[in-house]
Amino acid sequence: MEAPRRRSIVGNNRKSSKRALTEMNKDDVHVTAAEKEEFNDVKVWNTLSSGFKRAQLVLDENRDLIRRVNDNHLSRIPENVSRNVGLINEINGNISRVMEIYTDLAVDFSKRIEEAKSGDTDTTTSGSYGCGQSSCRS
């Protein structure tokens, strides 16, 4: 039983070798397009991931603030209870920041999906995710 013979690109028949090169180039273009799509997918997921991490940090901060408000309230010490006003205002500000982060994420994600649908692979959009303000903490 003989093994099947493989065609060489550098064969005597120029037409078949030319066709083989064209097919190889088509495959290379396809792989390149797939790699670009995968790169864009990774970029989108990284953007989402960083936005969610940022929101989680603010939510964790709120959890600590709420715990402090609760402790102050339970202590019934007038000085501690009066501190709660400032802490509650900070909690409200943090809730606004989380809303901004999620809004920016949604808008940016929608834009990237639309760009992917239209075939535009140059995605230079990047949301601020609530970081454009002086209240943003690193």
TrEMBL record:
Localization per Swiss-Prot or TrEMBL: Nucleus
Protein keywords: Biological rhythms, Nucleus
UniProt GO cellular component terms: nucleus
Chain residue ranges for the region called Disordered: 116-138
Domain Protein EARLY FLOWERING: start-end pairs: 41-120
Family that this chain belongs to: Belongs to the EARLY FLOWERING 4 family.
Matching Pfam families: Elf4
PANTHER family named in the record: PROTEIN ELF4-LIKE 1, PROTEIN ELF4-LIKE 4
Entry's transmembrane regions: none
Protein name in the entry: Protein EARLY FLOWERING 4 domain-containing protein
GO biological processes: positive regulation of circadian rhythm; rhythmic process
Location (main, coarse): nucleus
